[in-house]
Amino acid sequence: MKRIASVIGMPPENADVYEELHAAVWPAVLAQLSESHVANYSIYRDGEMLFSYMEYHGHDFDADMAAIA
What we know:
Strands 1-3-2 form a three-stranded antiparallel beta sheet. The chain is of the alpha+beta class. It contains three helices and three strands. The protein starts with a strand and ends with a helix.
């Protein structure tokens, strides 16, 4: 298993759209994450900062991330 985390900034004018888009994750997105061997994916927001964490259980990270994109 590979643990991956990232921190990115979010412009304050995007906060409302971010909240709207992340209020309910689409089932297709959740299915693709699972098919791409991603587990325990979480995003935490603190003001304008976003911290994400995921666990990758696959063997071809580049191909799986391309499938998610």
